[in-house]
Structures are given as C-alpha cells and as structure tokens.
Amino acid sequence: MSTTDTIQVRVNGKDRDIEPGQTIHALLESFELHPGMVVVELNKEILARDTYGAFEVRQGDTIELVHFVGGG
Amino acid sequence: MTETAAATVTASPLDAPLDIGGVEFTSRLIVGTGKYESNEIMVEAIRASGAEMVTVAVRRVDLDRTKEEAILHHLSADEFFLLANTAGCYTAEDAVRYARLARAAGFNEFVKLEVIGDEATLLPDVQATLEAAKTLSDEGFKVMAYTNDDLITALRLEDAGCVAVMPLASPIGSGLGVVNPYSIREIKRRLEAPVIVDAGVGTASDACVTMELGVDGVLMNTALAAADDPVRMSHAMRHAVVAGRLAFLAGRMPSREIAVPSSPTRGMLD
Fold first, then answer.
1. Which residue of A has its CA nearest to B198?
2. Most exposed: B73, B152, B175, B267, by fewest CB within 10 Å?
3. What is the mean pLDDT of chain B?
4. Nearest residue of A to residue B54, measured between CA atoms
C-alpha cells in the first residue's frame, strides 16, 4: 500500500515502499551496498557508475542490483 | 615446492603462452568459482590450480545477505583475470543483457557466452549462442563461446568474431570426460581461434587426454569443487593440463598392435 509520503518501486523483483527524492546512490546506501561492488539497471537501462548520484528513483521504477557470484 | 616445479614447467620455453583476445596467459587451465563448500576452500583451490583466468556469474544481489555471496569480497580482481559468464540464460536476448551488466562492472571486455537450450542436459542452444555472439562481438565484447562439439557451429562462432570457441567435452557437471575426441580434434584442426574445452572433465586423466588432443586450454568447475578434496584435485589438474599439453607438443610415438623390444636384440650371449 503506497501512501502519499512514499513511492513504490520494484527492486530485485520485490516491491518496496521507499522515501521519495532518493537518488540511486542513496538507495544503494540504504541497502549498505558499496557502489563499486554492484551494477545498476534502471528500467532495463544500465547506469554508468558516475551517474548514480544523478538519477532520482521515481514511482514505478524497476531496479535491478546485480553483482558477481561464484559460477562456472 | 610443487608450486615452483609447476611454475618452471609452464613458464619455460617448453610451451608458449596462451593468447586469448590479445591477453596472454601462462596457465592453460581456466577454472570456475561455483559450488565450493566455502569461499576459503575456493580461493585455496584456485590458487593450487595455477589458473589465472577465473569465471564468475552475474546475479541479483540478495538484499538480505549481501556480504556472503559477493565473490569480490573473497577473490581479488588484481590476482585473477575475471571472466564473467552468462550462465543460466536461455535466450540470446538474456545472454546479451547479462554480458552488458558484466561489462558495466568495469573489469574487462571478455565474456563467457553461454546460452542453454535444454534444462535436463544443459546443452547449448547453438543458434541463440551464434546470434548473441554476433551482437556482442559487434559491441566490442571479446566473446568466449561455450558450444556443442559441432565443427560447423564452431566455425560460425569463429566467423562471428569470437576470441575463443569452447566446445564441451561432455555435459556441464557430468564428469564424463571427452565423449567425442574426434569432434574436438577436428574443431581444433580447423579453427584459428583458440579452442578451449569447457565442461565435462571429471578427473585429472580427462584433463590430460583433453590437452593431448591439441586444444589450447581447458575450463572446469565441478571437477574441482565437487572433489572430496578440491585443493588436492586442483593440484592434480594443474599437473594434468601441463602434462597433456607437453605430451601433445612432444608428439607421441606411433601406437602398434605388436610388441617392439626396447633393448638391443644383438649382443645376446650364446
């Protein structure tokens, strides 16, 4: 349920209510993620690392935060 | 001591470095980082294998348990050359998406392209692989393509610009060894791009036999991670790959159906 003072976004397949006005950088910080350790896809577009502070998360955004894990 | 011995063999003039897409590697063994019991064992095993290039997968960050999964907390990108894979992708479109995400991590332009066509056998969808290989090569990726042991597909992947073509020895994680040595030999004979056998190696003799076919390298994961003692198996694989490579370069004696004595037949006493 989104209220007037939060926005709803989808992060890694899960809907979340977050504070409006956050940048991608701030979103990463809220998850305690180091920007250098993840790659961000915003609405299917990959963001350059140096733009994380420039993109504001908006109502309805779909965000994927990915990183490297073990694999063959 | 064993490490010094192996380093001497691999770095000596006995063999040339392996050049993949303009990057030189001393070791002809490429290893995966999946399925290890712990990250500590993984790192120790990879070091024991002597591999310089290691594969990693691209996955969503588990937002509840970040620190345990992130491989870069355990594996230094300064120590190893990271080869991101597109494992788990079933379409060309997905594989391209994963490759782009991997490149955005900022380490290199290399990608291990893998497009699976069937869940039960994990055999590659060669048509989709070819399509993704073209797209990614056009975008400047250095594509190392996992493929079937089919010569025509291998030739087409080379034409598509792949910097290495990687036919399977047998299905991923099967440990069956090289089921079709003829095909692997033919692929190696016909391609100019490096041929790396990827998947299916089970134990050291499989790796040795694979290298004796003349291919440029071997990529493995489960054979190490699923061994009872992954670190010891990694040592074994390092030696096996070097042994097979040098045996190939040395050129084996012709095999015969009859015995030929090794000692002189003349000079025997009456």
1. A72
2. B267
3. 94
4. A72
Q: Does A1 score more than 70 pLDDT? A: no
For chain B, what is the domain count? 1
Chain A residue numbers touching B105 (CB-CB < 8 A): 39, 67-68
Give the residue on A whose Cα is nearest the Cα of B104. A39
Q: Do A64 and B87 touch (CB under 8 A)?
A: no
Question: Is B208 inside any structural domain?
Answer: yes
What is the bridge-based pairing of β-strands A39-42 and A45-46? antiparallel
Q: What predicted TM-score, i.e. pTM, was given to this entire model?
A: 0.92
Q: Using one digit for the tens of pLDDT, what is the confidence trace for B205-235?
A: 999 999 999 999 999 999 999 999 999 999 9
Which domain CATH number covers B238? 3.20.20.70
Q: Residue B228: is it exposed, middle or buried by C-beta count within 10 angstroms (0-12/13-18/19+)?
A: exposed
- Is residue B265 assigned to a domain? no
Q: Kindly report, residue by residue over A11-49, the tens digit of the pLDDT.
A: 999 999 999 999 999 999 999 999 999 999 999 999 999
Q: Domain containing B17: what range?
A: 2-250
* Residue B139 CB coordination number (10 Å): 13
Within 8 A of B66 by CB-CB distance, chain A residues are 31-33
Judge whether B192 lies within some domain: yes
What pLDDT, on a 0 to 100 scale, did the predictor assign at position B133? 98
Sign of the dihedral defined by the CA atoms of residues A31, B107, B162, B10, in that order? negative
- Whose tokens are 């392996």? That residue is B18
In which band, very low, low, confident or very high, does the pLDDT at B13 lie, cut at 50, 70 and 90? confident
Orientation angle between helical segments B230-250 and B2-11, nearest 10 degrees: 30
Contact A71 B104 (CB under 8 A): no
In chain B, residues with a C-beta closer than 8 Å to the C-beta of A13 are 60
Question: What percent of chain B clears pLDDT 90, i.e. is strictly above it?
Answer: 91
